[in-house]
């Protein structure tokens, strides 16, 4: 299934792009589906921006303006985003309820930039204005006299002013003379559509994760095990870590990725993921192949002298080994956006390193190519007589688990 995100550039007075507003789209038709609730639209937009495309790919070194309604502000979802490249854009219908103001004050203290969307002269919520740094003035729903009054009043208060819905060169020149700082609208550019492939997951895995996360004392190891047998969840966890942190951390296992992100943050991201359609991937055999490879490589690491202590890395490799096919992208492009260790990346690119030989051994045995098995086994000090036993055990494990997941999915559908 294809997924979509639209982005519209925001310019400074010199017509240099300083930011992009990211916009929800649910088809290749470049307009917003008004039947979608604003909180769900933003949740899916965040899912797509961070999980599928990667926020850096969408905005580069610029900033992303993202709309938030009151429900998402209350959910603490904004705190998952970076203060460096995201502006929290408050929808015009957000009211200054005490709980909302408390959340906005915390965002401001934590270093987030807050903007008010579709601002008009009679906007009544002064408490929200006081907490904002940027006011996006609607050039279609304000008269020129109103725009002048807004500009005069709020420039004196030190607010940055963004002229939005600018549709003519005349409007742009007039806005510059008034002292607007930033500019956005059809005169400069219409929203540009970006498309990618979705990677759907098993609803049973979501249910198992929700159950595990809702326990009074969540079991870290249990949550890790649920994630690490699922291609969908593994990939998205890695993308979350890559998008949320700029620590330069290289991930060797699901356990490490989850440790960096934290249970609470992952729980919030999972709530976003659940808003998308929970449907099983059409490529079930590929998913099953990934599960077999993961367990096979884990067994191999356990029995190979040179791979002692590397079980987690090889299990992770097995799960991710089909990700290029599922996403329909070259593997070199996929791994570029994941915070994997150099050896894992090199393996997927066919480059010499510690993991290349067990990986080649796994693929060769799977494909019935027995000519190089002995050489690969010798390279990792692995008893070739163990190979068929480890593979059969991996197949049985994957088949059993897959059957169990299908049963849970069937129960989920019938409820």
Could you characterize the architecture of this molecule?
This protein folds into two domains: 2-196, Alpha-Beta Barrel (TIM Barrel); 199-415, Hypothetical protein af1432 (Orthogonal Bundle). Helix 8 (203-213) runs antiparallel to helix 9 (220-228), helix 10 (231-244) packs across helix 11 (254-261) and helix 13 (284-303) runs antiparallel to helix 20 (387-414). It is α/β, with parallel strands linked by helices and 415 residues long. 51% of the residues lie in helices and 13% in strands. Strand 5, helix 5 and strand 6 (134-138) form a beta-alpha-beta unit. The protein is elongated and about 85 Å long. It has 20 helices and nine strands. The chain has helices at 38-53, 55-59, 70-74, 98-109, 126-131, 144-155, 169-178, 203-213, 220-228, 231-244, 254-261, 263-273, 284-303, 311-320, 323-327, 331-336, 342-348, 356-366, 373-379, 387-414; strands at residues 2-11, 17-25, 63-68, 86-90, 113-119, 134-138, 160-164, 182-183, 192-197. The chain has a nine-stranded mixed beta sheet.
In brief, what are we looking at here?
The chain is α/β, with parallel strands linked by helices and 415 residues long.
Radius of gyration: 25 Å
**Uncertain residue ranges:** 274-282, 411-415
Shape: elongated
Give the neighbour order of strands across the main sheet.
Answer: 8-7-6-5-4-3-2-1-9
Can you tell me the CATH topology of the largest domain? Answer: Hypothetical protein af1432
Largest sheet: 9 strands, mixed
Beta-strand content? 5-15%
Helix % is 40-55%
Quantity of strands, as a count: 9
Domain HDOD: 199-386
Domain EAL: 1-205
Organism: Petrocella atlantisensis
Protein name: Diguanylate phosphodiesterase
